[in-house]
Amino acid sequence: MLATVLVVWGVRCAGPHQPTGPERAAGASVQAADGADGAGGPAAPSARGATGAVPSAPPPEPLPRSRATHLRIPSLGIDAPVVAVGLDENRQLQTPPVDRPKVVGWYDRGPSPGEAGTAIAVGHRDTATGAAVFAALGQVKPGRHIEVRRADGRTAVYTVDRVKVFDKTRFPDQEVYGRARRPELHLITCGGLYTRRTGYSSNIVVFSHLTSTK
After folding, report:
1. I want to staple 19 with a disulfide (CB 3.0 to 4.6 A). Which of 2, 49, 168, 193 is the partner?
2. pTM of full prediction above 0.70
């Protein structure tokens, strides 16, 4: 299962369970929950012209492919370079290098920033040397923005829909990694309780969707 997306052996953000690769969960459409559209995100608000409410803005057009170079979450003070990560020889999702705890890893076999589908980014919560790039990720609030700079100079801006904590033994592969109809970005780090023997007990997942480009 994908529970230990951020497992790195020998550091604090570690655990005994092994993830499956995102490709395994991307073979079928995500089941929308509670009226959601896409991978667990909320449905777009409807235009309520009869009540005089202002109709919601149309969603932005997805962007063509261009690799991620930088990720910002202004509300948390996160401003980090991005490196590409893929799958290892066991088809497990790789993580950013342990000796670079302040970088974010972008799954480069999935969508690039602003492309349609479910993009995945991972980051360490901490390492043996201290707090890492996603130490405060669980504190981000719905409605806050995530900005991802691209190699072509454009920026994809995502809005946070929700933040969930999943036990590693019951990690919902399909909900986190399954295909979305709209451009989405899911950020993942470790969470829950930490023990030296088993590492962190959970993963924190931030679900967001594209709301603008610049």
Report:
1. 2
2. yes
Average pLDDT over residues 129-151: 95
CATH 3.20.20.150 fits 22-42+63-213, yes or no: no
The sign of the torsion formed by the CA atoms of 130, 128, 5, 81 equals positive
pLDDT score of 92: 75
Written as six digits, the tokens of 151 are: 């190699």
- As given in the structure block, the two tokens for residue 64 are 């063509």
Q: What is the pLDDT of residues 71-87, one digit of tens each?
A: 999 999 999 999 999 98
Question: Would you mind telling me the total number of residues written for the chain in this entry?
Answer: 214
- Could you tell me the pLDDT band of residue 55, with boundaries at 50, 70 and 90? low
- Cα separation, 204 vs 18, whole angstroms: 16
CA distance 44 to 58: 9
Q: CB within 8 A of 151, min separation 6: which ones?
A: 66, 67, 68, 69
**Residue 93 CA to its chain's centroid (Å):** 13
Q: How many whole angstroms separate alpha carbon 75 and alpha carbon 95?
A: 24
